[in-house]
Amino acid sequence: METISEATIVPMNSRVAFITGAKGGVGSFVTEAFLAKGVTVVGASRSIAQGDFAGPHFTALPVDFTKPEAVREGIDASVRRSGGLDVLVHVLGGFAGGTSVAETDDATWEQMRDLNLTSAFYVLRAAIPHLRKSSSGRIVVIGSLAATEPHAGLGAYVVFKSALTMLVRTVALENKDAGLAANVILPGTMDTRANRQAMPGADFSKWLAPKKVAELAWWLASEDARDITGTVIPIDGCL
User: Are 119 and 46 in contact (CB under 8 A)?
Assistant: First the structure.
């Protein structure tokens, strides 16, 4: 774990957060958690509307995160509207599995690459210059506990989720001088509607509640975690 020098404390209710995948099964909990604290939130997803979240501090921003120019334009528009950027929470991702490496087709490989790694690169590249201007910038990225070791049949997913972790840790090193902290959360299987539909026979009681991930993301974005950067934090349900 790396540490960063103490920055000027900025009240969270005066800060601006950009949340990717804000309307998803996990992203919606993250968005609600930040809004509940009074943070100004720009919630971005491929499909999202102003009415998806209540309150005057929320702005919906439809963005295709597989398109670099769309990502850059979205973040720049957010900064112009809100006057700055203090927190980036990158939740966006995707899952596909069930085939060996030898049987994985190009479409699946490219989909896992684009959703789980390339999109994060586009977001980080566009957001970091703005986050460095904040007196206490934060980057929180949601990865996957599955990516800590190989899994047969999940090659494409695991490869790009693993690379995501290394990307964020590199960002932490490169931006420590600006007091910009970057950390990764690695959740286990989460109790989302999509996962229940995909695995109806599973024991849902052992899965991780998305609210717990949202609470951890909030803490990492807060001043309480200002000295934590470059960390990888696993969180799982009841084992």
Answer: no
**Residue 25 structure tokens:** 């099964």
Q: Can you give the pLDDT at residue 184?
A: 98
For position 5, what pLDDT does the model report?
Answer: 37
* Average pLDDT, consecutive stretches of 10 residues, N- to C-terminus, the chain (239 residues): 40 83 94 96 96 94 97 96 96 93 97 97 98 95 93 95 98 97 91 75 80 96 94 81
Q: Which numeric CATH code is attached to 12-235?
A: 3.40.50.720
- Measured between alpha carbons, how far is residue 32 from residues 11, 39, 127, 197 in Å? 18, 10, 21, 23
d(CA 4, CA 125): 21
User: Token pair for residue 122?
Assistant: 């586009």
DSSP for 105-148, please give it: -HHHHHHHHIIIIIHHHHHHHHHHHHHTTSTT-EEEEE--GGGG
Total-model pTM:
0.90
Tell me the CB-side half-sphere exposure of residue 35, using CA atoms within 13 A: 20
Cβ neighbours of residue 188 closer than 8 Å, sequence gap 6 or more: 145, 146, 207, 208, 234, 235, 236, 237
Amino acid (one-letter) located at 23 = K
Task: Find the radius of gyration of the CA atoms of the chain.
Answer: 17
* Amino acid sitting at position 150: P
